[in-house]
Amino acid sequence: MIKTLLIGLWVCIVALGSSYFFVQMNNSSSAHAPSEEEVEVVEFIKTDMVSVPVIRGGKVQGYLVAQLSFAVNKAETAKLPFEPAPYLVDVAYRALYENLTIDFSRLQPQDLTLLARKISEGANAKLGGEFVKDVLMNEINYVPRDEVRTNWVRKK
Asked: Does residue 99 sit in the same domain as residue 132?
């Protein structure tokens, strides 16, 4: 009987001690939790499909069809006096059009990383701050000039 009473007392002490421990842990972790002002809310701005001609040697080699998403800081873009989407599309178009180092017919994974970084840096420079956190490639396709539908219809 005494053993049962001591085991019950021991279980109560352990339960109370663990409850106290977890309450203290929860309080200390909430003290270090970032406030609502410190939390960065990311918003995604998705562009429409963009068709960019790839010109090499003065001739159109093909078309790059791309759709991008920009991960932007929502609080910062809300402060802008204008809508950022047209500027983001413009920067993406220019980066794709002006890029002579990437062979889009033989696209490599590292090319996409460099291209995303270039677009992000250009967008931040154009908007005047650190607005764009990341550029995501939703779709990117290269269509050679001779596979464009208008040329295909003429061949028939």
From this structure: yes
More confident call, 37 vs 46: 46
pTM of the model: 0.66
126, 87 Cβ separation under 8 angstroms: yes
Residues 86 and 20 both lie in one domain: no
Range of the domain at 124: 42-153
Task: Give the number of domains in the chain.
Answer: 2
Give the pLDDT confidence score for residue 155 in this predicted structure: 55
The beta strands (E) that lie in 7-131 are given as: 42-46, 50-56, 59-73
**122 and 58 within one domain:** yes
Distance (Å, rounded) from C-alpha 66 to C-alpha 113? 15
Q: Which two tokens stand for residue 105?
A: 């017919």
More confident residue, 24 or 125: 125
Distances (CA, A) of 119 to 28, 75, 107, 131: 41, 21, 17, 12
- Residue-level pLDDT at 16: 84
Q: Are residues 71 and 130 in the same domain?
A: yes
